[in-house]
Amino acid sequence: MTGRIRRSPFAERAARRQPGQAGRLRYVMGGISNHVMDGRRRDPRAERAYHTVPGGAGRRRIVWGSARAGAAVAVAAEVAPRMIRVENPAMLVLAAPDFEDMRLSRFDRQIIGAARLVADGGKGAVGILCPADLPEEQQAALAQAGADRLFFLPPGQDNPDRQARAVLHWFQQSGAAHILFPESPEGADRARRVTVAGGCSFMGAIQAFSLRAVIAPCHAMRRERVVQVLPQVMTLEEDRVAAYAGLAHEIMGMDYPADSERKGPEQTGRVRFGDAVAGDPASLPLGEAPFVVSAGNGVHDFTQFAAMVRVLGGTPGASRVVCDAGHMPRQTQVGASGTVLDAACYLAVGISGAPQHLQGIGRVENIIAVNTDLHAAMVARASLAIIADAQDVMPAVLRLAQQEGEQSCG
Amino acid sequence: MRVAVALSCGVDALSGRAAPVLSELHAIGLARQLSADLVGVHVGAAMPLLRDYAAYGLNRIDVLMDNAAEERGAGLVGAALAAWLRANTDIRILVTGHRACGGLDSGLVPFEVAHALDWAVVSDVAEVVGASDTEEKSSGALQVLQARPRGVRRPVFIEGACVLAAHDRTGNVPVRVHAIGRAAHIENVHLTTTSDEGQDNGVQGDIRPWRARPRLMSGTSDATKGSGNVLVAPSADEAARAIMNHLRQLGLGPSGAASRNVTQ
Ligand SMILES: Cc1cc2nc3c(=O)[nH]c(=O)nc-3n(C[C@H](O)[C@H](O)[C@H](O)COP(=O)(O)OP(=O)(O)OC[C@H]3O[C@@H](n4cnc5c(N)ncnc54)[C@H](O)[C@@H]3O)c2cc1C
C-alpha cells in the first residue's frame, strides 16, 4: 500500500451534487472542501501552506491530516516555555570560565558553548563553576549562555592551589564527564593544576573541537594530535567554538560549597597572589601595551607628540616612515614588519593606514584617527576620526589632558 | 642556593631543526636572577643542542637517561625530573619554560613535578623581584612577578621549594657566551624510576601534520568597518574634547583607570 490518497470519482461526484432549482440535480464543480482533491491538478504549495501552522520556538510546523489543527496548535505554541529545562540529565559537563572582572567575556561564552555542545550530544546538562560573589545579572547571562547548573567556588582568589582544589572537588563530587577551561593565562594555569591534582586525562590548547574528535597542535605547531575520545580536562583556544546562541536555559540547581570549605582554614598557602599592577606605559613592550599613541608622516613636532603621549598615559608607537626617518626608535614601529598590537585603543596621528600598517592593528577594537585626509584608510577603520591638522590638535589635547590630570590629582 | 633549569631541547617551529626554546632561555634568565649556581637538566638522550643552552650560562647539565620515559613518552618527563630533584636535595627551585616545543607541548611538566614533590608552582613568571633569604633552608620567601595580558604584572609570594614556569614571550634572554657552552660539563645520570610512578595523562591519539584550523570571526571584525564617527574640520579644542571623551569612555586617558596605579 502506498500512502497516496487515491481519487474516488464517484464519491467526489456525490459530494458535488446539490439540489438545484425545479427538482433538478446540480453539480458544483468549484471547490467545496479546500484543497481536497478538487481540481484536476494538485497544488502542492498551496496544500503545504494550508497545513502549516506556527509551532513552538518560532519554528513552522506542518500538520498533515484532514482536519487542520491550526488554531489549537498555535495557542499551544504561545504558552510553550521560552526556556529550555534540563531536568534529568544523563550526564554533566562542567565549564570553568575566567569571570575576569566578574563578567562573562566572549571567550567565556565560547567555553560554555563548547560544554553545551558536548552536553547536548549526550542529553546532558552544563554546570558552571563560578565565584560565590557573582552578581545577579551575570547569572542571568549564564542562563542565556546555556548553563543548567551553577557550582559556586569558595572565595580565595589569591591562592591558586586552593582554587584548583575547589574546582577538583566539584568535578569529582558532581560526577561530571568533562571539564572545560579557556586557554587564557588564568584558565590554562587552573586547568593544569586540576589535571595533575586529580590525575585526569588532559588535552590543552585545543584548536578544533567537535564531539567526534578534538585536535591540538604539538611538535612546535608542526604536527597535530587528534583524539577521538574526549579527555576529562580540556582547554580551548579563543574563537574556536561558537558561543551558544539558542534559547536560554533555565538554571535548575545551584550548589554552594560546604561551610567548612567556605571559611576554609588557610592550608598550605605557599603561593599567594598580590594585587596586579599595570605596567609603566612609557616602558612597556609595544605588543603588550593596552593603549598606544602612534605618530605617522603627518606629525612634524615630535617633542610635542612625546609630551602628549606621556600625559595621555599611552605607549608611543610610530609608522615605518617615521622610524625610517629616525624620528622614533625602531622598536616603536607598528605593523607587519614591526609589532602586532594587542591594545584596547589606538590613537593614530597623521597615519594614512597602509595595509602593512593596518596588519599591526588588526586586533584593536577602538581606533581614533587624526588625519587631514578624509579618505585615508585609517579614517575608514576608525571609530572616531578627526579631520584636522595634527599640529593643531596635539597642543589642544595636551592642554586639556593636563587640566584633567591636575583635577583628578587635586 | 642551587637552582635547576629544565631544558626540553625543542625544535624550531619553521624549519623543524633542533633549536633552543625561547621560553627556556627566559627560564635561564630567571634562574640567573635567583642564583649564580645553576644546573641544567634534560630528560632524554644527550644532544649537541645542550651546549647551545649551556652557552647562556649553565656550567653543568645533567642528562637523565630514563629508559622508561623514552619508551612511554611524555607524562613521565615530570616523574623523571621529580626523581632527580629528590636525589638532589640541595636544589629547592626548578625553573622551566612555558611549554615544550617539539614534544606533546601540553605545558603540564612543571605542574607534574610540583605535584609529585608537593612543591608550589607558579606559571608565566616574567621576573624575579627578590629572594629575601639566600639560605633558603629557613623557608625563605620568594617574590616574583607574573605576566598577565596587556602589560599587567602581578606579584606572587612563594614560600618554600617551588617550580617556576617562565613566560613564553616576556622575559630576558641572557647573553650568550660560546666559551661557556664549550666548557660546560654535560653528564649522563641514570635514574631508576619505578614504572608506576608518574601518571600517564592517558590520551594518545593520532599524530598528523598540522593544518590551520578556522577561527570564528572575531568581535573586532565589525569594528573593522569603523562606527564612522567622523568630525570634519572641527576647531582644535572641539577635536581635543572629542578625543578625551572617547578615551574616558574606554577608561583610558590621564584620569583613566589604566594609568592610576602606575608609578611614573
Ligand atoms: C614590505 C613592506 C613592509 C612594510 N611594513 C610596514 C610596517 O610594519 N609598518 C608601517 O607603518 N609601515 C610599513 N610599510 C610602509 C607602508 O606601506 C607605508 O608606507 C607607511 O605605513 C606609511 O606611513 P604613514 O602613514 O606614516 O605615512 P604616509 O603614507 O605619508 O601618510 C601620512 C598621512 O598623514 C596625513 N597627514 C599629512 N599631513 C598631516 C597633518 N598636518 N595633520 C594630520 N595628518 C596629516 C596624510 O593625509 C596621510 O594620510 C611597509 C612597506 C612595505 C613595502
TrEMBL record, chain A:
All copies of the Electron transfer flavoprotein alpha/beta-subunit N-terminal domain together span 101-243
Write out the entry's keywords from A to Z.
Electron transport, Transport
The record's Pfam families line, in alphabetical order, gives: ETF, ETF_alpha
**Gene3D superfamilies associated with the record:** HUPs, TPP-binding domain
Q: Which residues form the Electron transfer flavoprotein alpha subunit C-terminal domain?
A: 286-361
Q: Which InterPro entries match?
A: DHS-like_NAD/FAD-binding_dom, ETF_a/b_N, ETF_a/FixB, ETF_asu_C, Rossmann-like_a/b/a_fold
Question: Would the keyword Electron transport be found if you checked this record's keyword annotation?
Answer: yes
What protein family does this chain belong to?
Answer: Belongs to the ETF alpha-subunit/FixB family.
What name does UniProt use for this protein?
A: Electron transfer flavoprotein subunit alpha/FixB family protein
Query: Source species, please?
Result: Acetobacter suratthaniensis
From TrEMBL, chain B:
Keywords, A to Z, come to: Electron transport, Transport
Q: Which domain of life is it from?
A: Bacteria
The reply on keyword Glycoprotein is no
Q: Give the protein's recorded name.
A: Electron transfer flavoprotein alpha/beta-subunit N-terminal domain-containing protein
Organism ancestry: Bacteria, Pseudomonadati, Pseudomonadota, Alphaproteobacteria, Acetobacterales
Cited InterPro entries: ETF_a/b_N, Rossmann-like_a/b/a_fold
Q: Does the keyword Disulfide bond apply?
A: no
Annotated Electron transfer flavoprotein alpha/beta-subunit N-terminal domain ranges read 24-133
A Pfam entry, by short name: ETF
